[in-house]
Write a structure and sequence with these properties.
CATH class of the largest domain: Alpha Beta
Helix content: 25-40%
Number of helices: 6
Structural class: alpha+beta
Largest sheet: 7 strands, antiparallel
Number of domains: 3
Strand order of the largest sheet: 2-3-4-8-7-6-5
């Protein structure tokens, strides 16, 4: 390859590669010029040295910017999450315990002990099979020392029932049907009554099996927007001995004021809203913890 002019000294006679005047190899000279042009302004000259204080810095000529602490940035959301949980705990107390907890006051007769287990609750709900889905078990008691031979159960039905002759006729009809299916079933008493100024109906049934008589009392007491159901069952002699104490205690049975909370649609909707709020708050908190 020949050149007609030397790019360094301007020699104008044709030559192969080495300039006859200055002795430069034109191919190498041009290659060096191309490298300088493509490498940037700092190539071909001494690159500026970083100041001693920046030796070891990974950010080049620009000093590293300190990162703000992450703890303070997440403190606000965590504090809000904590306050939200405390608020939901207070709402849960009102919704699940105060408003929709026991829902009644009852002075337990002497010697009767409270029992709380799933099997007992199912047995008490079985006392009212027609409205099982509307039934809330409030309390279940057994007479101390006698196992489950003597029981006293209190439930509430989210349905207002009339305490009149039609209800008495319905209860009598139920007993008559039971008499047709079981031997030894006798209606001892069926009448209207009043407990704590609230109208009620009650029936007493005696059941004789294998020479042993068991007496049962079923009491329906009108509440504000619901019906309290009390069932007592005990051996005949125990029943006669305890019935007066139980009647005296039943006079103290008082459903707590319900108002709007007595409406089933309001009660259950509020409970589900509380559950959703707890789930949402817990999910938010877990998300913040993962980000932190």
């Amino acid at each position: 390859m020949g050149y007609a002019r030397c790019p360094k000294c301007g020699y104008a006679e044709p030559f192969d590669d080495e300039c006859p005047r200055c002795g430069v190899y034109v191919s190498k000279y041009l290659a060096a010029q191309e490298r300088r042009a493509s490498a940037g302004p700092w190539q071909g000259a001494a690159a500026p040295q970083a100041p001693p204080s920046s030796v070891g810095s990974t950010s080049g000529a620009f000093p590293a910017t300190p990162r703000p602490p992450t703890d303070s940035s997440s403190l606000g959301p965590i504090l809000g999450w904590t306050l939200g949980l405390l608020f939901l705990a207070g709402v849960g107390y009102v919704v699940l315990i105060d408003w929709f907890g026991a829902g009644f006051h009852f002075d337990v007769p002497p010697g009767w002990l409270a029992v709380d287990d799933d099997a007992t609750e199912q047995a008490v709900q079985g006392m009212c099979p027609r409205v099982r889905e509307k039934t809330t078990v409030h309390a279940f008691y057994t007479l101390g020392g006698l196992g489950t031979q003597s029981v006293l159960g209190i439930v509430e039905i989210d349905e207002a029932m009339p305490m009149d002759e039609s209800m008495l006729a319905q209860l009598r009809g139920n007993i008559e049907r039971a008499r047709g299916q079981l031997q030894g079933v006798e209606l001892a008493r069926a009448e209207r009554a009043s407990y704590g100024g609230r109208p009620a109906v009650e029936v007493q049934v005696d059941v004789e099996m294998a020479g042993v008589t068991t007496s049962m009392l079923q009491l329906l007491l009108a509440a504000e927007r619901s019906t309290m159901v009390v069932v007592m069952a005990a051996p005949g002699d125990v029943f006669r001995r305890e019935i007066e104490a139980v009647r005296k205690a039943l006079a103290t049975l008082h459903p707590l004021p319900t108002g709007l909370r007595g409406q089933p649609w309001f009660k259950y909707s509020l409970r589900w809203l509380w559950v959703l709020a707890v789930v949402a708050t817990a999910g938010f908190g877990l998300t913040r913890l993962r980000r932190g």
